[in-house]
Specification:
AB_hydrolase_fold; Alpha/beta hydrolase; 278 residues; 6 strands; Rossmann fold
């Protein structure tokens, strides 16, 4: 079995296991940390099929108006983290500009202020990506059976020789959750990329589903971009042991391929496989 197991993020319902493996392998191959030796063996878990059209978990064509009250409350809470530090004048401006996000029939009114604040900070339209991630995080946590199926898909790729889990976006939530449940005790390193785990709303929801943590001696390295809307531009310390800020460019700072190509990511993986972080 592979020494390193990757776990993808959202919007991969039209991909396949083979495409994901090639994407991860090719992107990691561009990082310069492998010059001193061969790349570790790699496997990539694939759960995108759970979110395809007709899925009971969350289809790609579900619209925001399909939000139930509990899911809406979860998303609003996550969107509005940090608004408590916003001045009254700024809040008024947000309320005036949120109409540009669309009529209530397109975007639920409760989401508009948080989305407007995010678009102002990270650029127009970026709030849609944050909402998409939050919807699939919610599905992972609350749609009946989704979390267990996804965790089992990941564990299918984890063997006795696996030492490092790498999770991108929603995949970082899955890998963290799996490790804190004690389901992969042979893994000694977690590498998260573009993670929403900096959101207190997400962490509270995880704790509510499974209290406590059994991560043990797992060394956690987090890689983030200041302009990645999913991370809120923030690292994860002290939750994670190490934070590395990278520059993925402004075009698509949340892109998996850009995170994988950084030496910081590859170095963390190499150290985890070699046991240098123990």
């Amino acid at each position: 079995m592979a020494e390193v197991v990757g776990v993808h993020g959202i919007a991969q319902e039209r991909s396949t296991r083979e495409r994901q493996f090639r994407l991860w392998a090719d992107s990691l191959g561009m990082a310069n940390a492998w010059r001193s030796g061969p790349m570790p063996t790699l496997a990539v878990a694939f759960y995108g099929w759970l979110f395809r059209e007709g899925s009971p978990y969350l289809g790609p064509d579900e619209e925001p108006e399909d939000l139930g009250p509990e899911e809406e409350a979860f998303i609003v809470s996550a969107l509005e983290e940090g608004l408590g530090e916003t001045s009254n004048a700024d809040v008024t401006e947000l309320d005036e500009t949120r109409a540009t996000l669309g009529p209530p029939g397109i975007v639920p009114p409760a989401l508009l202020r948080g989305m407007a604040a995010i678009d102002r900070r990270f650029g127009g339209g970026t709030s849609v990506l944050r909402v998409g991630v939050l919807r699939q995080v919610y599905a992972y946590l609350h749609r009946e059976g989704a979390g267990e199926v996804i965790r089992q898909d990941v564990l299918y790729e984890v063997g006795a020789d696996s030492r490092v889990l790498v999770g991108h976006s929603l995949g970082s939530v899955v890998t963290y959750d799996l490790l804190r449940r004690g389901m992969a005790p042979q893994v000694s390193t977690l590498v998260t990329l573009g993670s929403p785990l900096g959101l207190a709303t997400v962490r509270r929801a995880l704790e509510a589903k499974f209290a406590g943590s059994n991560m043990g001696a797992v060394h956690w390295v987090n890689v983030y971009d200041d302009w990645d809307v999913v991370t809120g531009g923030n690292g994860l310390k002290p939750l994670a042991h190490e934070d590395f800020r990278v520059d993925n460019g402004r075009g698509d700072p949340h892109a998996l391929t850009r995170y994988l190509r950084h030496a910081e990511t590859a170095t963390a993986i190499v150290a985890g496989v070699s046991g240098a972080t123990s």
